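Much of what follows relies on a compact textual record of a protein's fold. A record is reproduced here so that you can trace the correspondence yourselves:
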Amino acid sequence: MLENQLLKIAQDFGSPVYVYDAEKIESQYHRLTNAFKSVKHLKLNYAVKALSNISILKLFKSLGSGIDTVSIQEVQLGLAAGFSPEQIIFTPNGVSLQEIEEAAQLGVKINIDNLSILEQFGTKHPKTPVCIRINPHVMAGGNANISVGHIDSKFGISIHQIPHILRIVENTKMNINGIHMHTGSDILDIEVFLYASEILFDTAKQFKNLDFIDFGSGFKVPYKEGDIETNIEELGKKLSNRFNAFCKEYGKDLTLAFEPGKFLVSESGSFLTQVNAVKQTTSTVFAQVDSGFNHLIRPMFYGSHHDIVNISNPNGRERFYTVVGYICETDTFGNNRRINEIKEGDILCFKNAGAYCFSMASNYNSRCRPAEVLWYNNKAHVIRKRETFDDILRNQVELDFSPKKEKVIA
């Protein structure tokens, strides 16, 4: 989107506000499908946790995507968005057997990553198809908090526990229809991903009735100019060739599945804030904006980088600013950033705000969450209204603490 379009949205809808570009989402989706066009059966399941607005889900449905869900509520949201149960895969971690059974009753694909739950579910529901999530013990992510395939991860069943899985499957006679892995976010080296894929192929050979192999996702997007990203085209070529060869060896055309989230929506998003004050101390110039980590927690949570642009002064001279929020504790978006000169009232744009921004927002400090706007067909559409103070109070129950009057005895 152009900066003047974003500025107009901030003027029309107020700040702070999340803005998503539908055209960018569509182009990322097609980029990924084109990279694997030589695979006979390809299925992309958008990871709902990245950005769960129902209009975004409907957009993905129109593109032919399925969805990857991690909670029963995300499953219900997908059904509400019009996805059929077979277009939804449920990939939770640490949930109860009851929640998995509830999802299974809704007819969605089930993915289990715990030996105990696998045995319990297989004993009670041997005819229900189940995918198994494997931990390949390969760390492919760029940050320890978002790398989920290493040996100490809580996710997946260890490849060293394959004999236990086979024993459970044999004893329960359960139906295993898929094998899954997810190594983590921000994959930098596709050779590491391909190495983990070989582990998944070796595991898949142990199961004779598979319908699909799910390679997770975690593809890295660029966060700033000149930043590296996952080479999707090279990965597509190499993994497609290997997958097609495996299908011949397996004797069946399986479906190659992915669960991209950040890759599809991150770059589509802009988060717009207004500068409340410019404050100079003895060593720092702060740009203080009308938001905080209650709306964009990623920089404070795990040090993520978001480019910050002053769209009110695109041609101004550059100065150094530390951009901070209004939360009553350390609340820094970016330290010592080179930004076009900032004045109070200017609109700052945070890039890469499509993934894990609104979905991780909160009402901390009793602040309302912002509106969400989708730029679609050259028009701004509100897809979530800005919260009001009534929303803060909506589910609170007030008790009566007024003093009780004593009875007066005449």
User: Anything to note?
Assistant: The CA atoms of residues 26 and 95 lie 32 Å apart. The mean pLDDT is 94.
